[in-house]
Amino acid sequence: MTLKKAYLIVFLILLADQVSKLYIKTHFILGGEIKVFDWFRIHFIENEGMAWGTEIPGDYGKLILTLFRIVAVFGIGYWLWDCVRKASSTYLIVAVSLILAGAFGNIIDSVFYGVIFNDSYNAPSVFFSEQPYGTWFHGKVVDMLYFPIWKGTLPEWLPFIGGKYFTFFNAIFNIADMAISTGVGILIVFNKKAFGTTDKTEESKEALA
Fold first, then answer.
1. What values do phi and psi take at 152, rounded to 5?
2. Is 119 a catalytic residue?
3. Does 143 participate in catalysis according to the annotation?
4. Distance, CA of 48 to CA of 44 (rounded, Å)
5. Cα angle vertex 83, ends 107, 178, to 5°?
6. Residue 61's pLDDT band (boundaries 50, 70, 90)?
């Protein structure tokens, strides 16, 4: 796969991610929900942390996380370039492209959203608001994809969780998170194909052209 095709994957994922987030921010209040199907809903939340809502505690946790993401994106970008240079398998190049796009998508939220949007508590946010909710590098990541495939009370005989109300799948995420997870999934499921050795010196020169 050529570098241009890899960049196209990154661009398309990034575009879809940001368009969906901008739409949600400017049309939903925090906690707002649209029921598409019983098992799929658009539910607007924001989080301070990493994919799937995990966080680094402390006053400087958000700043540390954002700076780490920026460094990681440069590292993943180099990894993608190196994969193409070495004519690695398409599985690996696609996986790294997805991970890069997802990481970059959430970085945009973290770096910019705090200074270009006001909060979403009582009304949809205003783009380039005069009263932004945060500062540079302290923006919140927008999540909206919710798949409560099954809800119900678990059987009493199950250890620890028996008799409790349970939702599967309870995470709320975004397209960037989905891209990262898909990329990692490709590396795990197709590990041998992704990291298989190749001998394509001439092909690698053409891919970087």
1. 170, 175
2. no
3. yes
4. 14
5. 40
6. confident
